[in-house]
């Protein structure tokens, strides 16, 4: 449990730093592509240091899957960093929890999974929460909210590839390969928008990358020490820490709409996670997930 709580603290902190970098807090706003590049390059440096110390045997069984997974991860985190620069951290974080819903929906055509009434209901509940956070009828729709939705969709697709990779390589191998590919992709992308960061922005970029590496390490350790059904509920603490950071540093406090929308999304996502945990793995499913139509 402690590892998962630590992971949520670190993840929320990365979105806080991304917001500071994407606004005028630390200097001229950096492009989201440059922020995600900093995330990958400094996380890669941190993970590579661990690899050089531990010297594990590194091998990749399917580079195409790793490339697809990392491409989705890079695009998803870039959209998320763009979102937090324009909407409250708690709103963007709550919308990002829809990734499990999008994963469920994408698993139907991509993995051949069947979805029963409980999971459909959970998805519908979570999507209602998303509609609340989009604030229809409250004036112009916020572009940042749609960016966060796009991030959740792409990260849902990333979960599909993670399912395909599960059990094929060790956690450290996956983290190293993921961040190595991410450095290559983000370095190409950032070349089109690069701007010289200030000293404070360099420090924030380094902090963002290291914190993300720590978050990934804590998450992997948490999942290896307890069942996913026990660990998953603690992931929603990310929303609490994000709201706290936003209020403490930017003076942004969640309004009633934010609380209502986030609560509905968490209810739907938690119901979906609970149902997923009850579904036993089945060898007949392409992903190793049960395809029982009654579930």
UniProtKB/TrEMBL annotation:
<protein>
    <submittedName>
        <fullName>Uncharacterized membrane protein</fullName>
    </submittedName>
</protein>
<feature type="transmembrane region" description="Helical">
    <location>
        <begin position="118"/>
        <end position="134"/>
    </location>
</feature>
<dbReference type="Pfam" id="PF00892">
    <property type="entry name" value="EamA"/>
</dbReference>
<feature type="transmembrane region" description="Helical">
    <location>
        <begin position="67"/>
        <end position="87"/>
    </location>
</feature>
<feature type="transmembrane region" description="Helical">
    <location>
        <begin position="234"/>
        <end position="252"/>
    </location>
</feature>
<feature type="transmembrane region" description="Helical">
    <location>
        <begin position="140"/>
        <end position="162"/>
    </location>
</feature>
<comment type="similarity">
    <text>Belongs to the drug/metabolite transporter (DMT) superfamily. 10 TMS drug/metabolite exporter (DME) (TC 2.A.7.3) family.</text>
</comment>
<feature type="domain" description="EamA">
    <location>
        <begin position="3"/>
        <end position="134"/>
    </location>
</feature>
<dbReference type="InterPro" id="IPR037185">
    <property type="entry name" value="EmrE-like"/>
</dbReference>
<keyword id="KW-0472">Membrane</keyword>
<feature type="domain" description="EamA">
    <location>
        <begin position="143"/>
        <end position="273"/>
    </location>
</feature>
<feature type="transmembrane region" description="Helical">
    <location>
        <begin position="174"/>
        <end position="195"/>
    </location>
</feature>
<feature type="transmembrane region" description="Helical">
    <location>
        <begin position="38"/>
        <end position="55"/>
    </location>
</feature>
<feature type="transmembrane region" description="Helical">
    <location>
        <begin position="93"/>
        <end position="111"/>
    </location>
</feature>
<keyword id="KW-1133">Transmembrane helix</keyword>
<dbReference type="InterPro" id="IPR000620">
    <property type="entry name" value="EamA_dom"/>
</dbReference>
<feature type="transmembrane region" description="Helical">
    <location>
        <begin position="258"/>
        <end position="274"/>
    </location>
</feature>
<keyword id="KW-0812">Transmembrane</keyword>
<feature type="transmembrane region" description="Helical">
    <location>
        <begin position="201"/>
        <end position="222"/>
    </location>
</feature>
């Amino acid at each position: 449990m402690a590892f998962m709580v630590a992971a949520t603290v670190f993840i929320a902190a990365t979105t806080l730093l991304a917001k500071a970098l994407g606004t005028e807090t630390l200097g001229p706003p950096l492009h989201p592509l440059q922020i995600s590049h900093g995330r990958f390059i400094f996380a890669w440096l941190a993970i590579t240091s661990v690899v050089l110390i531990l010297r594990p045997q590194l091998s990749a069984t399917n580079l195409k899957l790793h490339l697809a997974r990392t491409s989705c991860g890079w695009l998803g985190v870039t959209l998320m960093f763009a979102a937090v620069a324009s909407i409250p951290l708690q709103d963007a974080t709550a919308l990002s929890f829809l990734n499990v819903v999008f994963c469920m929906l994408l698993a139907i055509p991509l993995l051949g999974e069947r979805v029963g009434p409980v999971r459909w209901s959970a998805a519908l509940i979570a999507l209602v929460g998303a509609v609340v956070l989009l604030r229809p009828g409250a004036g112009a729709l916020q572009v940042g909210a749609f960016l966060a939705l796009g991030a959740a969709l792409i990260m849902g697709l990333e979960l599909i590839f993670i399912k395909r990779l599960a059990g094929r390589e060790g956690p450290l191998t996956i983290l190293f390969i993921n961040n190595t590919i991410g450095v290559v992709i983000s370095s190409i992308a950032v070349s089109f928008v690069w701007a010289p960061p200030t000293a404070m922005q360099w420090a924030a970029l380094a902090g963002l990358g290291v914190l993300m590496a720590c978050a990934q390490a804590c998450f992997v350790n948490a999942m290896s020490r307890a069942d996913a059904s026990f660990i998953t509920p603690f992931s929603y603490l990310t929303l609490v820490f994000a709201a706290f950071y936003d209020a403490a540093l930017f003076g942004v406090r969640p309004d009633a709409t934010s609380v209502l929308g986030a609560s509905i999304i968490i209810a739907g996502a938690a119901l979906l996670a609970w149902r997923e945990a009850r579904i036993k793995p089945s060898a007949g499913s392409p992903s190793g997930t049960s395809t029982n139509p009654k579930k």
